[in-house]
Amino acid sequence: MGDILVITEHLKGEFQDITFEMVGRAKEMADSSGGQCVAVTFGSMNEKAGELGAADSVISVGGSDDFNPESYAAAVQSVVSAKSPSLVMVGSTSMGMDIANAVATVLDIPTISYCTDINTSSSGFSCTSSMYGGKMNAVTNVDGSAVTMILAGAFNADAGRISGSPTVEDFSADFGAGKIRFKQLIEPEAGDVDITQSEILVAVGRGIGSKDDIELAEELAEVLDADMACSRPLVDAGWMPRARQVGKSGMKVKPKVYIALGISGAPEHIEGMKSSSTIIAINSDKNAPIFDVAHYGMTEDLFDVVEELVEELE
Amino acid sequence: MKIAVLLKKVPDLVEDLEVDASGKELDTDDIKFKLNEYDDHALEEAILLKESGAVDEVVAMAVDGEDVDKMLFTAIAKGADKAVKLTDGNPADSHQLGKAFSNVLESANYDLVFTGVQSVDDRDGQLGPILASYLHVPCVSVVSGVALSGETAVVHKEYSGGMMAEFEVDLPAVLGIQAAKQAPRYAPVSKIRQVQEIAAIEEVSMGDLGSGAGSSVASMAPPEKGVGAKILDDVEALMDVLKDKGAL
User: How far is it, in rounded angstroms, from Cα A201 to Cα A213?
Assistant: First the structure.
């Protein structure tokens, strides 16, 4: 196997956790297969190459510090064309989605999404994709070059968070035709409560059924002195404010106790709450993936359980 | 200003999912399919833009299949102007789906193409950016807010932690929609029936689908159960846990 190219991700001058998760795994795979782990940085992030000590080397494409779907993808495409790596690792993230698919489609190599695991094999590598809301794992074996999109949290960031002094190569990249222009970053609207600081969270998901039924969960939150949180669909339905959303596009929370009511546990949600000290899931679907990450579970009807619990606590 | 919205059906995850006899694919015999929820948001955003006067025509498009007519009539009932069905083929993955839509869209004059940002079965990548690469037009994914001015769109792309970035995009362009400005509307059954009687679905041949994903699934299985959750039998046991963990 040849080299593994890791496309780093940064925001506001800091490498994101996904960067270290990918670099750590890429280095392990490169070491076992005889290739090199090469990290690609954008803008002025080459100045922080010392944080990428787990990588064997760094390619700095320069350009703007601000992510741009068109120019970042074009730059990665020119690096991949020039270096012909065996494997390209990109985050299964908002930024990664624009880069991975564009690069792979233009270069006519496969894209493999939602990877939770990736390993070298005799003929190349094999990767596991989490599909159908986390209810199925699909294994893809690849014997040529490919772009893989790595889910956040799939690998340990500590393995890649090693300082060092990898060699940095300045690469003169193409940045596309300028059809997309970055205008500004927009900070999240501050909510009334910062759920990243909450000790206890009562989180509701689609299983709650209707907007009116959220009231019951609110009663439970009140007796537990907990804050309310939710999964993405409830925000999109307009039932809960965005500041309460836990998950990939929402907040990363780690309360002492996280009570998940009617949350199935799609990978996007789990990414935001799996660091909670104790997770209690109540969901009538006994096959819901949330039970794999929860410490305690109940498969009874959530309304029956919550009603009885509130009564007992009052 | 004309928008095409691409709609796709996906397995309803409420169902018990099982792997078929090949061990590589979902057993789709007994499961229900529904409109990909992100496609529903894409449709809603397009209809909102039309209602605001920024867009003249919204065209809903889908690949032919079971219950697809009903899905397209529903789109018209919600506010789409026209429905187009792609026939003569059965795209197996996002790449072939991208080819089918690009064959139809490249000769048509669309200013914008909306897709749902992702779907639960797009192992080989997301339709929006794949299609945009085939069409050689710019693409932004994970969009939750589109405004139009002249020859450009101003879009909000979501990052993690509630952060967003604003981009200006030259048209024509493809946008992968994460969420519309408001929750997708419902179409009453009576209205869908009415549409079914008066509206027609245009049929277009989807053409050559190309070689596809370039990778295939070797095996599929439900995730291995780890230690998993300790299942509590009653509320009393739940209260003991809450006490033990300091929530009471």
Answer: 17
Pairing, β B2-7 against β B33-35: unpaired
pLDDT over 80 at B225, yes or no:
no
Instruction: Enumerate the residues of chain B whose CB falls inside 8 A of the CB of residue A134.
Output: 223
The pLDDT of B175-200, averaged and rounded, is 95
| Rounded-to-integer distance, Cα B72 and Cα B24, Å | 30
Which ranges of chain A have pLDDT less than 50?
Answer: none
Q: Which residue from A minimizes the CA distance to B236?
A: A309
Strand partners, A140: A127, B217
Which of the residues A90, A193, A249, A252 would you substitute to probe the B interface, choosing the one with the greatest number of B C-beta atoms within 10 Å?
A: A249
- Given the candidates 3.40.50.620, 2.30.30.40, 3.30.450.20, 3.40.50.300, the CATH classification of the domain at B2-244 is 3.40.50.620
CA distance B133 to B61: 19
Q: For A189-220, how does the pLDDT look when each residue is reduced to its tens digit (9 = 90+)?
A: 877 889 999 999 999 999 999 999 999 999 99
pLDDT-derived band at B49 (thresholds 50, 70, 90) equals: very high
Asked if A114 and B156 come within 8 Å (Cβ–Cβ), the reply is no
What superfamily in CATH does domain A4-170 come from? Answer: HUPs (3.40.50.620)
Question: What pLDDT does residue B161 have?
Answer: 82
- Structure ipTM: 0.94
Distances (CA, A) of A201 to A222, A278, B237: 11, 11, 19
Nearest to A62 by CA among A44, A39, A40, A81: A44
Strands of the sheet with B139-149, listed across from one edge? A180-186, B164-170, B152-158, B139-149, B173-177, B112-116, B2-7, B57-63, B82-87, B201-205
Query: Using CA atoms in the order A218, A223, A229, A234, what is the torsion angle rounded to 10 degrees?
Result: -20
Cα distance between residue A200 and residue A256, in whole Å: 6
Measure the CA–CA gap between B111 and B58, rounded to whole angstroms.
Answer: 11
Cβ partners under 8 Å of residue B71, min gap 6? B7, B9, B35, B62
- Please state the pTM of the whole predicted model: 0.93
Q: How many beta-carbon contacts under 8 Å exist across A and B? A: 250
- Strand B173-177 to B139-149 pairing: parallel
Domain covering A195-313 in this structure, CATH number: 3.40.50.1220
